[in-house]
Specification:
Elements: H1 2-37, H2 44-51, H3 55-58, H4 65-81, H5 86-95, H6 100-117, H7 120-134, H8 150-165, H9 175-198, H10 205-223
Helix pairs in contact: 1-2, 1-4, 1-7, 4-7, 5-6, 5-8, 6-10, 7-9, 9-10
């Protein structure tokens, strides 16, 4: 009887592993196709064919394309925000000698390195948010949205707010202002670069990263300027 129980548990564990792997393959292929064609223009049949499974199998994991797109978004968001978890932030903060400007520059450099390795991460975040706004959906209400990075984001906001009080970022009045003046323009610039490079026969993301780095410096100079 014990051997039978062990075998059943082993089979259940193997099934969970296979299901996890299938979800991962589906979501990675879906992201690639969504980035290339757009969410609205993609048929789930294309995703199933890319993964090599029947279309009906997709519906055992996702109710519809919207649920798949949301699952891809959450997986993609974790890739975007891994470096904003509190332990990672604190480690870089110490490595920068607790110098706020150096720390912020290093954080944007980390984003740039991620961009060079996988530009579609930033492109899909933009695509999904655009699709959500058209459908009057709020991505932040999705279960698990930025959960791993929530503490780190709060910690980062506190460092920036402290720097503003000390006059280190005279071009900003608050953390939200810093986001509006630096973070959001920088990420939008990455999306434009990723879109432009994807249209080339031979994309050059290294050159794109150099352009983004120059833009980063311009944004930080603005944040450090009194006007």
């Amino acid at each position: 009887m014990q051997n039978l129980t062990d075998m059943q548990e082993w089979c259940m564990g193997l099934r969970e592993i296979n299901e996890k792997r299938t979800r991962e393959m589906v979501e990675l292929e879906a992201r690639r196709i969504f980035c290339a064609k757009g969410i609205g223009e993609t048929d789930l049949k294309e995703v199933a064919q890319a993964v090599g499974i029947p279309r009906t199998t997709l519906y055992t994991y996702y109710r519809d394309k919207q649920e798949l797109a949301a699952a891809v978004y959450l997986r993609n968001l974790r890739s975007l925000l891994w470096h904003l978890e509190k332990p990672a932030l604190e480690k870089r903060w110490r490595a920068c000698g607790e110098d706020l400007l150096g720390f912020l520059r290093d954080s944007l450099d980390t984003t740039l390195r991620d961009f060079m390795q996988d530009p579609d991460t930033y492109l899909y975040d933009f695509i999904y948010n655009l699709q959500a706004s058209k459908s009057h959906l709020d991505p932040t209400t999705l279960e698990g949205h930025a959960a791993d990075a929530a503490e780190g984001l709060q910690w980062l906001a506190e460092r920036v707010e402290e720097g503003i009080r000390l006059g280190q970022l005279p071009g900003c009045r608050s953390y939200q202002d810093y986001q509006d003046c630096v973070i959001f323009p920088f990420l939008s610039h990455l999306v434009r670069l990723a879109t432009f490079e994807r249209q080339k026969a031979r994309p050059d993301f290294k050159a794109a990263a150099e352009k983004a780095r120059a833009f980063r410096d311009l944004l930080l100079r603005g944040a450090c300027s009194a006007g």
